[in-house]
Each structure stands twice: as structure tokens, then as C-alpha cells.
Request: fold
Amino acid sequence: MADDLERRLPDVPAAFPRPDAKLSDDVRRRVLALRPPHRLGRRLGLAAGAIVCVAASLGFTIGYWLRPASVDAATSISIAARPGEAVAWQGGFTLYGSIVNGLPHQVVTIEEKSCGGYEPFHPVVTTETVQGGAFEAEPYSPPAVSMLYRARWRNGTSDPVDLRIRPRVDLAYASGFFKVGVWGDGLFRGARGVVERHDKRLGWIRVGRFTLRSNSYGTGGYGYVHATVRRGTNVRAVIPTSQVGRCFIAGYSNIVRV
Reply:
């Protein structure tokens, strides 16, 4: 050990007094006595590592079985509309879809959001799944403007489906004048449309134009067209999509036989 201490002091001048060899050995023994045995320290380290692993495993297992049910709630739920178009206040349609696990008797909530509205998605009707996970529902009343619908099951929601709404268009004829009434949850003042007659060879041919005025109800509008058509001719009114705004699609009236 004395030789080892000498090797650790190569830069000390040879004339410099060296420590006593017996004293150096005594100091080494005292220092080494303060250290835990190497094997015991290794065993303690391994034991501590094993405890950490077991604790982590137990924590994962307990956490797995005690995790909230909502964590596993499937987000795979689908919805569609049949048909995808309807007429304001009168068009019937059905919403249908399915959940991913195929279980029956699962409560599904249908939510809606109106086009152009500030209100967020909100519930309108609930339904239950049947065997295989399928469901269907019909909202209580037909909408008067295009709507987004989605289905909610547990903590998951489907991608929204768009139900496109046509404004209701009523056509009446008397004494050479056609009156057009338009209905929907929107302002149609200034919208332009056409009155058409049907030809067996050429199809629908325009016979007049109209511009809608506001009515007393605050929504929809009305207009007049003076046109002369042959008796027995089928006539209709049309308001194109470009005239009804982004929350509606083109509107077609009932057919009037002059």
C-alpha cells in the first residue's frame, strides 16, 4: 500500500519528506472500514431496483382496473341522414348509424346545430341501439334551415352529418298572375327566381322572373309574375341555390296546371 501511495505522488520532489508507511496503512484501513462491503451494496441496489419494478407493475395493474369507464368509452360511432335533403318545416328524414362494439340497449343522444346559428350542439332526441349496435331516430320536428347532426354515446361523438334544407316554395295562379311564396328560417328579401313551364320535348322553359319581397312574418318572402301560358300547361317556380344563401339549397315549388 505504501508503494501505491508513492505512485500517486509522482510530482513530489524526492527530497520532500514522505509520510510514514505504517501511518498510511492505518489511515487506509479506517477509510475502508467506513464503506459498505461491495457485494452487500450491489445486493442492496438490486433489491431496491426490484422493489421499484414491483411497485411500478402494481401501480399499472391497479390503475388499469380502477381507471374510469369513460376512458374506454368508444369514440367510434357513426351517423348518416336518409334522405340527405328535406323541405323546410315539412320534409321528413331519418338519422341512423351504429356503435363500434355492437351492443344493444345502449343510449345514444342525437345533437343538432343550425347553420348560421350561434348556439352550439345541443341534444334533441335520444334513442337506443338494437342487436348489432345499430340505431335510428327522427327529430321531433323538421328543421327550417340546414342542420348539422351528430350522435353521442358515452364520451364519444360521431362526425357530424349535414342535412341540407330547401326553402318551401308555394305557387298559386289566378287571372294571369302567379304568386310565389317562400318559407324558411331565413331572410329572402331580394332573392330572384323564375317561373317555368314544362314542354314535352324541351323540358322546363322560363316564362317569367320574380324578386322576393319581405312578408309580415319576418322570414321567407313572396313575389308575383305575370305570364301568359297555354291552358293545360304545367308550371313551377324555382329559386336557385345562388339566391337563397349558404344555409339553403335550391327550392322548387309545387306544380300548378293552368
In short: DSSP finds four helices and 17 strands in the chain. The helical segments are 2-7, 21-34, 38-66, 241-244. The longest strand covers residues 203-211. Residues 1-19, 37-42, 44-74 have pLDDT under 50 and may be disordered.
